[in-house]
Design goal:
- The structure holds 2 protein chains of 2 kinds.
- By secondary structure, chain A is α/β, with parallel strands linked by helices.
- Chain A has 15 helices and 15 strands.
- Chain A folds into 2 domains: about 5-170, 2-Layer Sandwich (VC0802-like); about 180-400, Rossmann fold, CATH 3.40.50.620.
- By secondary structure, chain B is α/β, with parallel strands linked by helices.
- Chain B folds into 2 domains: about 1-10 and about 260-380, Aspartate Aminotransferase, domain 1, CATH 3.90.1150.10; about 15-250, Type I PLP-dependent aspartate aminotransferase-like (Major domain) (Aspartate Aminotransferase, domain 2, 3-Layer(aba) Sandwich).
- In chain B, helix 4 (about 100-110) links the parallel strand 3 and strand 4.
- The two termini of chain B are about 30 Å apart.
- The chains are: A alpha/beta, B alpha/beta.
Amino acid sequence: MNYDRILIRYGELSTKGKNRKVFIHKLKRNIKRVLRNFEKINIEADRERMFILLNGEDGLEIIELLKNVFGIQSFSPAIKTDKELENMKNAALDLFKKIHQAGETFKITTKRSDKTYYLDTNEINQIFGAHLLKNIPELKVDVKKPDINLQIEIREKAVYFSCENIPGAGGLPVGSSGKGMLMLSGGIDSPVAGFLSMKRGVEIEAVHFYSPPFTSDRSKQKVIDLTEKLANISGSVKLHIIPFTEIQQLIAKQVPENYSMTTTRRLMLRITDEIRRKNDGLAIITGESLGQVASQTLESMYAINDVTNTPILRPLITMDKSEIIDISRAIDTFEISNLPYEDCCTVFVPASPKTKPKKEKVQYFESYIEFEPLISKAVENTETIAITPKAAEQDEFGDLF
Amino acid sequence: MIYLDNSATTKPYREVLESFNKVSTEYFGNPSSLHGLGGNAEKLLSQAREQIAKLLKVQTKEILFTSGGTESNNIAIKGTALMYRGRGRHIITTEIEHPSVKESMEQLRDLGFQITYIPVDSDGTVSVTDIEKAISEETILVSVMHVNNETGSIQPIKEIGQLIKKYSKILFHVDYVQGIGKVPLHFHDCQIDLCTISGHKFHGLKGTGALFIRQGVKISPLFSGGGQEWRQRSGTENVAGIVAMAKALRLTLQRQENSVAEMRKIKDCIRIGLEKIDGIKIHTPVLHCAPHIINFSIHDFKAEVFVHALEEKGIYVSTTSACSSKIKKPSSTLLAMGVPEEEALSSIRVSLSYENTMEEATQFIESVNEAVTRLRKVMN
């Protein structure tokens, strides 16, 4: 007998009181998006758990995808039967035989949610244990360290059998904590920052500064590819591409070289904040890690942060580069980030940027320049792309493959 | 025309040629170029890699594009030897390998490596125990083909993989050129470290192939240069050919799913037809063999005469393998199976694709019958 459903246990949201409905709704939506290519599945959610009814779709592929969905504590492929003991016994044996390999031990864990069921937990354990032992030669019980734990759950309307408990990604469903704008440069850090905020339920929209011809189509593609990796988690991520050439040229011309980096970051933040306002975001997310480069010293952050009151989330702030790289490898963005294309941060790098810029000084330099019209223009000409997993390429080359 | 020489090469699918053409005309850029044309070529390359990896159920990073089976086998074997010659200098292979494996081994022997050739039984299969016995402290590589190109016999790859897994120093290479699209092989389940495939054997184009290198396995590159293919194989990528191969593989695996049973039926029909003809001996084993190859000898006739006799009727078959058929040597696989030299010299190989039909099979049998009768008259 094949698994016909996947049982999903909620993560922290079980504790979230009145907001629970919202969490479950978001989780269901995210799962639907991630599994949208499996047309036959059905998702049923209740307060305690969620079921994906497979209806013949490939369970193994779905399991792989579910491992990355935030808000899931654990999940188990399962089968459902009615409460007729003979049917239950047959189902349990079929399922067990499919998974069991010679020499493996087992135990049975019964959860009797239906307290009115005529057999108690011990009786159920004994009946099913005996049934398996009788029918599978040389099978042994090991209650401490079993290779297989057959879980039986007796609920009011049905019984569920399951042999595996797969850990989920934890965290909160993406979108359940509101929306933030992720400043995505194309480097190693920012996708990781995006990933970690998504883990705590933030829905992200990516903002990328694009400076043609100083940066090429490939650096843009790189950012699209990175966004796609993030979209794999939530099913869809918006990417805002901001034309930045004019502003960068103006800064290079008007601001003293050692302060140009500080001003550039301040303007990026101002523009991102505008985009946030237009898209109803509540925060800005960056991949800054304290002391990593000139713009990420506390002095720099103090001078740059000056342009906005919007909360800035810096999930990587206390992390070492090696820790960040580990995560980027795990989420499959490292290789893309490491491609050697110029991006907006690497083009106009001054020889010796100020590591301890003064807020007053940078304000003073900027006071001579009319940035507002350029900022409005950049915001106006922003190109917004909705990135969904794999959508980008396939359309373009369609029938070639 | 009835084409029954699909183990030599296959006819490229029309859709595959269309992709090749389109990529060659519209996306001819060098994937390493920085401009948009190069960017598109690179995208095509990575999409092809993803598709092939997915179809083979491996990771994208594990696919290395090459010019075909011969190159993949050379890289796998010599690359391993170069990389690990410090660990040991002993390599194990079988007596029935393709020349690109065998000759690579011979070259390594000249360089001071010790090569053990494992014999096969009368069905053309190696024994796992023989391999185990041959393993020594010095062994760094075991290379065994999956489906034999001359007889279609299938080697016990999974069992060999399980054996080699016990020896952390030894890499396992499999030549999967004849098996792909016909006999499924799960690289990871079989503990394979290196695996060769070739595009033109599954309706792709000549000059395209790939080598699977399991993640974590490092071998020395043979081509030095611009560092393409993760520095493993320099040289501008054959983007059009690679995209064509990705499509060919997808189409072939689809056909496999739907038509492999039919192919087996066609082959059985040929087998039964041949068995009825006087003086014909079939070398392909009944069990553990691929669905598309059947090898037989006709008593008293040179294989070459017979190939031409069938060609007159528009039927294309082969004497032994295409790679060895121009040299008048008896098939080494058959000799290794213990077939007498005279019989081995008169062996014919019929190899099917999913394009072949039952009618063609019947027609083939009729033509063989006619040819045998006619030639016997001439010879006696």
